[in-house]
Design a protein that fits this description.
The complex is a heterodimer of chains A (about 230) and B (about 325).
Chain A lengths: L1 H26 L18 E4 L2 E4 H23 L2 H10 L1 H8 E2 L9 E14 L4 E8 L8 E7 L5 H5 L11 H20 L11 E11 L2 E11 L3
Helix pairs in contact in A: 2-6, 3-4
Chain B lengths: L1 H25 L2 E6 L5 H16 L3 E6 L4 H13 L4 E4 L7 H10 L4 E5 L10 E5 L1 H15 L4 E7 L5 H14 L5 E8 L4 H14 L3 E6 L2 H13 L6 E3 L5 H8 L6 E3 L2 H18 L7 E4 L2 E3 L7 E2 L2 E2 L3
Parallel strand pairs in B: 1-2, 1-3, 3-4, 4-5, 5-11, 6-7, 6-8, 8-9
Antiparallel strand pairs in B: 10-12, 13-14
Helix pairs in contact in B: 2-10, 3-4, 5-6, 7-8
The chains are: A alpha+beta (about 230), B alpha/beta (about 325).
């Protein structure tokens, strides 16, 4: 009897020990967590901005509404799309000097902050980097420029058009690139997602955004799109 | 009287010549520190810096750190000991180089960094950085386009300790990962090496028979991968690289490798020396410390104009 009680005690102890171990294992307090190599491209990444650790997403959220959109809308009023595009077609360097913006060194393509009224004459949605062909007023059914409509937005046009922030403000080129890709995400979320472009074919829009010349095509990244006549 | 004038003129001439030579020497020594010249990229960079420095009247000393931080530190000490006017450096590590540049600064010697940045501002006078990330997104976009946005691909990455290996890989994936039908079946480091890329590619081919594309972190690995694919009768696989070497330009012209990103090695090095000269003469370079130099996409459209890391004008 005594013996069985003792063995019961041992059993209980054993069970407790095993379950304790089990809990411990489940918690894996000793597990080495592998460094996530995509860590630095994670959404909530912290970057070195002017020497201070900054949450990039929060920073971009604020900058987008407070500074970027107002800046681009204001600047775009000065540069009418038709005028700028015809200048680019005539002489790229001159057009750049007159209407363009680019960061310090030569070699980087000029970015143009423009606005205009146009008709969407066709859509290219086969690629994930979808585009809409825009025909500027006066209409002639010929495409004058391509507007990126996502979901993939290429390039760094928005970032490079900002005169109040530059590579100098960031810790390194990865952070500077992350800044750009978050701005591109903003374009998709804030500007493009509210439209179903399939329904906008032949519709007229008013647009504001940043254009760049890429292998003789003018590619616009929009910051504001308004439907006309609705 | 005539004699005196002639003597006077002659002495003026001699004095002028003398002071001319003294002046040239007075401009001092520019020390150029780069990784090993075995890689033609770094050789071009060093040669371009030396060429520009001598053109501007400096003495030059071109040395290599071979990727070693301690060797680089010794070379900075040498530059300090010889009281160099300026240091031009393609550095051996973004973190470890900070101390060396600071040491030179404390000794009154300005450093001008080329190709790669360090993780600190305000210590070097200029950081003329090759925009690896932008170059990688250019190559990534071209790669996706050639792959028609779908299919199995392989990535060969550079030496994992090298910042640029990570930056380029992230740049590629920044683009490629936005296309869900692109499937990476293997990702391995071939340590920037052509022979390693060849053998790694050989074994990857054996395990995967439907590879449609290979994206490589530099041109030498692209050359190795392309050779392995051709040997296996898979010459139509889409291979892309990074750097803009003459070998790859030729391969592109032959229709083998499809694209690469040109890093402006030559222009960066010359710009750094020009900025050093301006800084030494006027106390300011007149430009921001950190300057990004964009890469250019090289395809069969422009590969014929690529020589020695420079794209000739059309």
């Amino acid at each position: 009897m005594k013996k069985s009680r003792k063995s019961l005690k041992v059993l209980i102890l054993l069970i407790t020990a095993v379950s304790f171990l089990f809990i411990l294992t489940a918690c894996k307090p000793w597990t080495v967590v592998e460094l996530d190599k995509e860590n630095s491209t994670a959404v909530n990444s912290s970057v070195n901005l002017d020497g201070e650790n900054t949450n990039l997403t929060e920073y971009v959220d604020e900058l987008w509404t407070e500074n970027i959109v107002p800046y681009i809308i204001k600047e775009s009023e000065k540069n009418k799309a038709a005028e700028v595009i015809s200048a680019i077609r005539t002489d790229q360097e001159n057009a750049g000097e007159e209407y363009g913006i680019r960061e310090s060194s030569a070699g980087t393509p000029w970015k143009y902050i423009i606005s205009g009224e146009a008709r969407i004459i066709s859509l290219n949605t086969e690629s994930r980097n979808g585009t809409a062909d825009l025909d500027l007023q006066p209409y002639d059914d010929q495409p004058d420029l391509k507007m990126q409509i996502g979901p993939v937005i290429r390039g760094t046009s928005i970032r490079d058009s900002l005169d109040f922030i530059s590579f100098d403000n960031f810790g390194n080129q990865i952070e500077y690139a992350q800044f750009s890709s978050q701005l591109n995400d903003k374009v998709t979320q804030e500007v493009l997602n509210e439209f179903n472009f399939e329904n906008l074919l032949d519709k007229e829009i008013n647009f504001k955004g940043v254009a760049v010349e890429d292998s003789s095509e003018i590619i616009l990244t929009p910051v504001e799109i308004d439907l006309l006549g609705e | 009287m005539k004699k005196t004038i002639i003597i006077l003129l002659l002495s003026c001439l001699v004095f002028g010549l003398l002071s001319g030579t003294v002046g040239a020497q007075d401009k001092g020594l520019i020390v150029v520190i780069t990784p090993s010249h075995d890689n033609p990229f770094f050789k071009t960079e060093a040669d371009a810096a030396v060429e520009k420095a001598e053109e501007l009247g400096y003495e030059t000393l071109s040395v290599v750190h071979g990727g070693s931080v301690s060797k680089q530190s010794e070379l900075f000490d040498t530059a300090i000991a010889r009281d160099a006017a300026a240091i031009i450096c393609d550095n051996a590590g973004a973190e470890a180089t900070i101390a060396a540049v600071q040491k030179a600064k404390d000794a009154g010697i300005p450093t001008f960094l080329i190709d790669r940045e360090i993780n600190a501002s305000g210590i070097a006078v200029s950081q003329i950085v090759s925009n690896n990330y932008q170059g990688a997104t250019l190559v990534g976009e071209k790669f996706v386009e050639l792959m028609e946005e779908e299919g199995k691909y392989v990535e060969l990455t550079g030496k994992s300790s090298d910042t640029n290996a990570q930056i380029r890989s992230q740049g590629f994936h920044q683009v490629i990962d936005q296309y869900p039908d692109m499937e990476m079946v293997a990702q391995q480091s071939a340590n920037w090496s052509q022979t390693e890329a060849f053998t790694k590619m050989e074994s990857i081919i054996q395990a995967n028979d439907e590879i449609k594309g290979v994206v490589c972190g530099n041109d030498t690995m692209a050359m190795g991968a392309m050779a392995a694919l051709k040997a296996a009768g898979m010459g139509d696989v889409i291979v892309v690289g990074f750097d803009g070497s003459d070998d790859v330009a030729e391969s592109i012209m032959n229709g083998d490798i499809k694209a690469t990103a040109l890093q402006p090695a030559y222009d960066m090095a010359q710009m750094a020396v020009e900025q050093a000269d301006k800084y030494l003469e006027t106390g300011s370079t007149g430009v921001k410390e950190k300057q990004l130099m964009d890469c250019t996409l090289i395809t069969k459209e422009n590969a014929d104009r690529l020589h020695n890391y420079r794209l000739e004008e059309e």
